[in-house]
Specification:
Elements lengths: L2 H10 L25 E7 L2 E4 L1 H10 L3 E13 L3 E4 L2 E4 L4 E11 L3 E5 L2 E15 L9 E16 L5 E10 L5 E4 L2 E4 L1 H23 L4 H11 L2 E6 L5 E18 L2 E16 L15 E2 L5 E10 L1 H15 L4 E3 L3 E15 L3 E12 L8 E13 L6 E12 L5 H8 L1 H30 L1 E4 L2 E12 L3 E2 L4 E15 L3
Parallel strand pairs: 14-16
Antiparallel strand pairs: 1-15, 2-15, 3-6, 4-5, 6-8, 7-8, 8-9, 9-10, 11-12, 13-14, 14-15, 17-26, 18-19, 19-20, 20-21, 21-22, 23-24, 24-26, 25-26
Protein name: DUF4403 domain-containing protein
InterPro entries: DUF4403 (IPR025515)
């Protein structure tokens, strides 16, 4: 619209109080922070100790020589008989002897069977005959068996291990020896001799296990679990703060030469963007709680865009679009030149976008430009589990340098502009989420943090509802997965 036409309209309106429109105030700024959700997680933290303490206890409790045999037999060699006229007559008397022998054990081997720690004890017996009536110089025979000391551990409320031991045999040969026509057994002797040894083992086993100092290791684990773990190093830096609630015990297992106690930490995990948060002050070590240590963890991935980072994104999209005219209903094509973009969070969970621009009819010249600033406020929304952003409840207000500034407001209300802004933010968030998930998968797949080697597998991802806060436009993303922490104290 030519300037003289605007002037005519203004003069014609003097009687009704025509004047320049009052500047429109910018929407109020919000200052509410982005919330930091607290997620309950269970982190699997196995603690390994050398099984040498158990092996040493068994070796000490079970002597190399288990017992000796010294038994007189009046009939080592039965009488010799002949048959005369149908009758059997003894021609030699029975010959007595002394049966002597020794029962020893071989090297003890430890292995695991479920919750049992099995100490395999090989038993060997060697038996000889002595003083065989001067007829025989001596005969020998051997036998073997395999005894199993089945050890089962438990942890007391003070985290000190306790053990119970049961005895079982697998005879690799018959539980005795056929010798000089008679059966020499040592099954009863084995049970009789080994049972008090097993009682000694039950008594001494906790003392040997105490050398591994499990309570001190768990105490150190608990204290150091109050920490902050780096999830993403930069763009943006993301930290997860771990605050343990209780420590879980779900049994143990033998793995090679190591005895693994399956522990878990039930903790609150909080995720922060920016500087590393201060860890929570450690609490006293609680007694073990019997529960599953499945390693399920949950954490919050904040995709928060600082408004200063969004402004150039919007500006680039508008500048690209402004290369072709905008078609306005009842007005026709107009050319817009965007000079500045300002974005921030305002009240009611809305985003405010201020556009400084100049607009003129496509057929006009630069002299016909209308300059001004318009403000758009809207509520950002997204569908469940979608990073695609759109805006509801759009409101546009502005102040211009002429009455024809209605042209600016019409442009601001045009879907071509509001949709363009939404699309630029949508693309920005979609890329941010995909990139951040890749970074976090890479960062936490295996990470050494102090005494902890953290191995994780990121699983399901849930995208929440976008909202404008004072600190930024925020899309909450929650992730589930499994985590295992190998504890290796320095």
């Amino acid at each position: 619209m030519p300037r003289h036409a605007v002037l005519v309209l203004c003069l014609a309106g003097l009687a009704t109080g025509c004047s320049q429109p009052k500047p429109v105030k910018a929407p109020p700024r919000a200052h509410d922070p982005v919330p930091v959700p607290r997620e309950a997680s269970t982190l699997s933290v196995p603690v390994d100790i050398d099984s040498g303490a158990i092996r040493h206890a068994v070796e000490q409790a079970i002597p190399r020589q288990l017992w000796t045999i010294n038994k007189h037999s009046p009939r080592c060699i039965p009488p010799q008989r002949v048959k005369i006229l149908g009758a059997k007559l003894n021609v030699t008397p029975p010959i007595s002897c002394t049966i002597v022998g020794v029962v020893t054990r071989g090297p003890i081997r430890l292995r695991g069977e479920g919750q049992d720690i099995v100490a395999d004890v090989p038993i060997h017996a060697q038996i000889s005959a002595r003083d065989v009536g001067g007829i025989l110089k001596g005969e020998t025979a051997t036998g073997s068996a395999l005894a199993h000391a089945r050890i089962r551990l438990d942890l007391g409320k003070d985290w000190r291990p306790r053990g119970t031991v049961r005895l079982r045999y697998d005879w690799t040969k018959a539980p005795g020896i056929d010798f000089l026509g008679q059966r020499i057994t040592f099954t009863d002797e084995a049970d009789q001799k080994l049972r008090p040894i097993i009682q000694t083992l039950e008594r001494d086993l906790p003392r040997e296990l105490a050398r591994s100092n499990i309570p001190a290791q768990v105490e150190d684990l608990w204290r150091k679990s109050f920490t902050s773990v780096l999830l993403n190093e930069r763009n943006p830096p993301v930290w997860m703060r771990v605050t343990p609630l209780r420590i879980l015990y779900n049994g143990y297992a033998m793995q090679g030469s190591r005895l693994r106690f399956n522990l878990g930490i039930e903790a609150v995990t909080e995720t922060f963007v920016g500087n590393r948060p201060d860890p929570t002050k450690p609490t006293p070590l609680p007694p073990p709680a019997s529960d599953k240590t499945d390693g399920q963890f949950h954490f919050f991935i904040p995709v928060t865009a600082d408004y200063s980072e969004l402004e150039p994104v919007i500006m680039r999209a508008l500048a690209k679009r402004s290369q072709t005219p905008f078609e306005l209903p009842a007005i026709g094509p107009v050319v817009a030149r965007f000079e500045n973009v300002e974005a921030y969070g305002t009240t009611g969970g809305r985003i405010a976008v201020g556009l400084t621009l100049a607009v003129r009819p496509a057929a006009g010249g630069k002299a016909d430009e209308v300059h001004g600033r318009i403000w758009m406020t809207a509520i950002p929304r997204n569908a469940p589990n979608s990073p695609q952003v759109h805006f509801d409840a759009l409101a546009v207000a502005g102040s211009t340098d002429a009455l024809s500034g209605d042209l600016l407001l019409a442009l601001g209300k045009n879907p071509a502009v509001s949709t363009l802004i939404a699309q630029s933010l949508t693309q920005n968030f979609s890329e941010d989420i995909a990139e951040l998930l890749i970074k976090i998968r890479r960062a936490i797949s295996e990470r050494q943090t102090g005494d902890f080697l953290i191995t994780t597998d990121l699983g399901a991802v849930e995208i929440g509802q976008i909202r404008a806060f004072g600190q930024g436009l925020h899309l909450p993303v929650r992730a589930n997965g499994t985590a295992r922490i190998a504890y290796k104290p320095s």
